[in-house]
Amino acid sequence: MITEEELPPYDRVLLSKKPTAEGKDIRLRSDDFYKENFINVVTNARVTGVDLSRRKLQLWTGDTMQYSKLVLALGGAPRKLTCPGADLKNVYTLRTVSEANAIAAQSAGKHVVCIGGSFIGMEIASSLVGIAESVTVVCNTDEPLPALGPDIGCVIRNRFEAKGVRVLVKEEAACLEGGDVVLGVTLKSGLTLAADVVIAGIGVVPPTDWLKGTCIELDERGFIKVDHLFRTTADWVYAIGDAVSAPLPLWDIESLNIQHFQTAQAHGQLLGYSIVGRPYPTQLVPFFWTLFFFEFGVRFAGCAQGSSHVIVHGNIADLNFVKYYFK
After folding, report:
1. What is the pLDDT of residues 163-182, one digit of tens each?
2. Vertex 152 angle, CA 148 and 154, to 5°
3. Model-level pTM?
4. Domains of the chain as residue ranges with CATH
């Protein structure tokens, strides 16, 4: 197992909910587990190329590594801001423990602006209440959490505002202000927000540039195309997780990218069956959850793509409901 990070795999989902968490406390497996299961974990290493004909990986150090079967579990790279001032100090994305810890430390008693109103932006905003002097979320959509619909997003926004978080909708960052360190965010509407810390939660991109030019097929957005057995278009190479576009058989979807922790976990479990040639015990049902202030959240199971109508049971305003999507 090769990873760019300093640590073996850990509970990355927790970082946006508890950015003060230490890496040693959120590891998914102990060193003994890897040793007992003959898993060699190589940290602080980056793969820069692959020779598919010789089944050999090229590492950033110049070293090479042979493989018989290769699994690409690349995750996603946070999309960075491109507006003027995006390179100022104290402008962050969130993916690693060190980034989460830096955000928490720098936010103490300061004005924080989170750009992006989806899951990462809203979760990190909720986690910084009580740490920061003020927290503002800037969304370019009608309501935050657009994947859940404006009805749910409106309720979540109201609850955030009741907690003291300012949530601005239908707004976009025009530029970041400051000399060396960020001091503010000017929006396209002309409003300027005080900002000692800026966090960009504006989605991820697949870190697959190093695969371009190989026979591993990527889709138009750069995600790795795989079949129902997670095979790529290269022999002996499989891919799973956030960086793939895979079939979703129960919904008759030929290829879909899903960027949620539980789906990536399920990919890994199913891939084990695929590699040893055994039938799947079950088909994948996507699932995710989100949690704010460690008090309330939303859980989602299934896939709403292609749905034609919706039925709601319960009360969305109380976040005590079930929302059904039908084709």
Report:
1. 999 999 999 999 999 999 99
2. 120
3. 0.95
4. 12-76+205-276 (3.50.50.60), 78-203 (3.50.50.60), 288-326 (no CATH)
**For 136-161, how does the pLDDT look when each residue is reduced to its tens digit (9 = 90+)?**
999 999 999 999 999 999 999 999 99
Q: Are 134 and 165 in contact (CB under 8 A)?
A: no
CA dihedral 251, 252, 258, 260 (to 10 degrees): 30
> Please, where are the H alpha helices in 133-239?
150-162
**Residues contacting 78, CB < 8 A, separation 6+:** 93, 94, 95, 200, 201, 202, 203, 204
- Say if residues 90 and 106 touch (Cβ distance below 8 Å): yes
Q: What are phi and psi of 272, to 5 degrees?
A: -55, -45
Q: How many Å apart are CA 50 and CA 38, to the nearest integer?
A: 24
Sheet with 64-66, strands from edge to edge, namely: 47-51, 56-59, 64-66
Q: CB–CB of 162/67 below 8 Å?
A: no
